[in-house]
Structure formats: C-alpha cells, structure tokens
Amino acid sequence: MTAEIINIPRAALHEQVAHRLRQMLVENRIAPGAKLNERELSEVLQVSRTPLREAIKMLAAEGLVELLPNRGAIAVELTETDVLNTFEVMAGLEAQSGELAAARITDAELVEIKAMHYEMLAAFTRRDLPAYYQLNAAIHRAINSAAKNPVLTATYNQVNARLQALRFRSNQDGDKWRAAVQEHEQMIEALDRRDPVAMRAVLLAHLHNKRAVVMEQLRAGQQAASA
After folding, report:
1. E strand map for 39-182
2. Domains of the chain
3. pLDDT tens digit string along 87-99?
4. What is the distance between the alpha carbons of residues 4 and 201, in angstroms, rounded to a whole number?
5. For residue range 139-175, what is the model confidence (pLDDT) as tens digits?
6. How many other CB atoms are there within 10 angstroms of residue 105's CB atom?
7. Burial call 145-173: b when 16+ CB within 10 Å, e when fewer
8. pTM of the predicted model as reported, rounded to 2 decimal places
9. Mean pLDDT (the chain, rounded)
C-alpha cells in the first residue's frame, strides 16, 4: 500500500488526508473489506493519528468506510444487491443531471467540459487509467454542476461516493473502456446541441452499461475466490 508524499497545509490537514485516503480506496490500494491500519497509514501519509482519524470519520460519513466497535475502520465492501440498488439510483441522478445540464449549461461551462474531455481522451490514448478516471469523474461532476440544482448535487455526491472504486475498476477491460469513451463522445455532442432528450438517453445507457461491467467483475471475483 503506497501513496505519494505531499505537503499538506495545516489548516486543511484532515481534508487533504481524506482526499488521499479516498484515492487509495478508489484505486484499490486499500481493498474492499480491509481494515484501515492507523499506524501504517500514518507512516504512509506522514501525518499524526489525530487528522487521520478525522479523515476516516469524513469517509465514514460518505459511506466509503464503516466504523465498527472494537475493530476500527473497515473499507466498505458492497454486496451485489447494494451495487444493483445504488446503480439504479445513480442512473436516475446522472440522467436528471444530463437532461437539466443540456438545457441550462453556459457557454463557459461547455468549453470547460470539452477541454476536460480532450484531456481525458489523451489519458485514454496513453492508457493512463488514474489520470483518465480523475478527468472522467470531473466531467460527470461538471455536468451535474451545470444542472444548477443544489439538492440534486448533494444527493448525487452522496450516492456517487459509494460507487467510485467500482467505476474506476470497470475501465480495466480494454474493449469496455473504449465503449465508455465513445459514450462520452456522445455526451459532448448532446451537450453541444443542447439536446436534453439525447443527453438523458446517453447517460442512462452509460450507467446501465457501467453497472453490467461492474456486476460481471464482481461475479468473476466471487467465482475466482470460490475456486
């Protein structure tokens, strides 16, 4: 388990630690179901246990870790039912975000999303999955922001946090990764046309396809573990 060394401003220490831990969870450097070892994480992140514990509490509030009596913090491991239920809700939130964004997006917001899209394509060409994923997630957040509905955004952020690690790993299959990129191309085209119907449709399809990939990976992992 490794993490790059970063200089952290004291005023925002636990937020920065939470960001790094979130990255480690998403990128599977802390596996689902694993215990968060405070001593080891303090050494890796070069922080004391006080900000680390505050960061872990933040992640618990987001649903990324579970705090268990006398056992400490455990990285959340979603069941198949959890995954299906969460993706069902997330598909609706993404579709609503896209539909509203297509109607409400400003020229400046569209330019910014297009710029991130081209950077994401470059990361895909390099097969740089961490960079690709960060840009991909930023594009989805920007679309949600362009919807200009704070209640939708708050709900989106809460539900989306539970799926980040699974969405990251879903791009590890080359063909399915390529298909996801093509769906992002369709999103940009729909936004450019200010077409709410097309935007809703492509985001629904995108999330349903993502769910199918995630479920396939989960079941393959279970079969491998059983074998």
Report:
1. 65-68, 72-75
2. 10-75 (1.10.10.10), 80-226 (1.20.120.530)
3. 999 999 999 999 9
4. 39
5. 999 999 999 999 999 999 888 887 877 777 666 667 8
6. 22
7. bbbebeebbebbeebbbbbbbbbbbbbee
8. 0.76
9. 87
